[in-house]
Amino acid sequence: MIENKLIKKREASVEFFIYKQDSVKIPSKSMNVFYNEKMILNRDITSLVVGAYKNIYNLLTFNFIDSMAASGITSIRLLKEHEELSKVYINDINPLAIDLIKRNIKLNAIDASKVNVSQKDANSLFSEFHNQDHSNNTFKRADIISIDPFGTPNSYIDMAFKAIKKKDGLLCLTATDTAVLFGVKPNVCIRKYMSKPLHTEYCKEIGARILVYFISRLANINNLGIIPLLSFYSNHFLRVFISTVKKKKEIIHNFSNYGYILHCTSCGYRSSFSDDILQIPKYCPSCKGSKALKYAGPLWIGELHNEDFLRLLLSLNKQQNYINKKVIDKKLSYALEEVKMPPFYYNIHKLCQELKLPFVPKLDEIIKAIDKKKFTASRTHFDNLAIKSNINLSELKNLLFDLSKK
Ligand SMILES: C[S@@+](CC[C@H](N)C(=O)[O-])C[C@H]1O[C@@H](n2cnc3c(N)ncnc32)[C@H](O)[C@@H]1O
User: Does 40 sit in the ligand 1 pocket, CB within 6 Å?
Assistant: First the structure.
């Protein structure tokens, strides 16, 4: 009896089964069917993003492909939380997951006509949408696609762009191969994302920017462009939400967001450069040291989030009772502060340590002091101990010295 092997759980608006055995395991591939309690935040934010998306585009109905659904928890939550969802394609390659998805659909009394459960490779499912699109003019491409694999999503993105709506489609994508994107395994990153990472103190942001760049290039290959709506890091994963655009002008505009980040390992100087490689300096313009600058890229140097979209997410979050409500509010508020700021940050604790300061000034005080000097500064959701600013590093160091004397 499979029932004896299952245990019932609750998450936000839904009850669902997972395997008893899995409930005591550290989340990993070895589970019968994957479930990670720590990813609730990811699913909460995904539901908020879907809410903001339908709101902005005035969608009365829309469909969704949950290409790697595991227990089906994301789809079932979205079906309960968004009644405009007219069809959800819930897919997973694992046969045990399919059985569990069907039980969880029943448990939550989901209207069977709204769901289509399948056990396919995600790319095969996407290619069915792509092929039908070619054979039948009335066929509806996917409004929303979610890709949530073990590790890298790199091999699913091209096909997802062939299955998604060309204009205003919403692609939601997770990457858990953070050691690769954050530069611990640089050669793997070059191989998988065609971009060189850098294992610096702001490597999380570099990783997010490599991922968005890679997504954008694959969109371009498919005659599409992207608008990043929200790109965030949490609990060892990156989650990126982008919408699709199809006008040539908009696609070409994407190119201005491609570039490099330069880093001086002697003095900590950092800056970004657009794709014009002839303009890139070889040696540090700040300390004029003899060591050549290191670089990361090519990567996305444009905005990682859309300001209006973030404001809407923040207001939708206020209306929810999610257990992560406060954490989400903080994360989204910091993300909002990141808009129009430079594509890197400074870890203040690390800087104070380097400068051997007696204590670390409060981040809010540092931001105020930078503002007074007519530079801009903000918090960043990537690192609670860091700030973003357009002040140059030597001025920032002087300012930290002054504040530590007070
Ligand atoms: C990280 S889990 C997904 C978690 C799920 N989205 C959630 O919120 O709980 C990854 C899932 O992808 C499935 N999977 C792995 N490779 C796949 C493929 N090529 N096509 C479809 N599903 C795949 C695995 O069986 C696993 O259930």
Answer: no
User: Phi, psi (5° rounding) for residue 297?
Assistant: 140, 180
Mutating to test ligand 1, I would choose from 22, 34, 64 the residue with most ligand atoms within 8 A of its C-beta, which is 34
pLDDT of the residue at 229: 98
- CB pairs under 8 A, 24+ apart, for 21-28? none
Residue with CA nearest ligand 1 atom 12: 68
Model confidence pTM above 0.90? yes
Whether residue 122 has its Cβ less than 6 Å from ligand 1: yes
**74 close to 146: Cβ distance less than 8 angstroms:** yes
Query: Which of 11, 18, 29, 68 has most ligand 1 atoms within 8 Å of its beta carbon, as the pocket-test mutant?
Result: 68
Contact 406, 366 (CB under 8 A): no
Task: Measure the CA–CA gap between 186 and 197, rounded to whole angstroms.
Answer: 6
Q: Residue 298: is the preceding peptide bond cis (ω within 30°)?
A: yes
205-251 per-position pLDDT tens digit: 999 999 999 999 999 999 999 999 999 999 899 999 999 999 999 99
**Euclidean distance between CA atoms 189 and 246, whole angstroms:** 28
Those residues whose C-beta lies under 8 Å from the C-beta of residue 394, and which sit 6 or more positions away, are 286
Specify the pLDDT at position 137.
Answer: 66
Burial bucket for residue 179 (CB in 10 Å: 0-12, 13-18, 19+): middle
- pLDDT tens, position by position, 57-99: 999 999 999 999 999 999 999 999 999 999 999 999 999 999 9
Spatial CB neighbours of 14, under 8 Å, sequence gap ≥ 6 = 73, 76, 77, 80, 104, 108
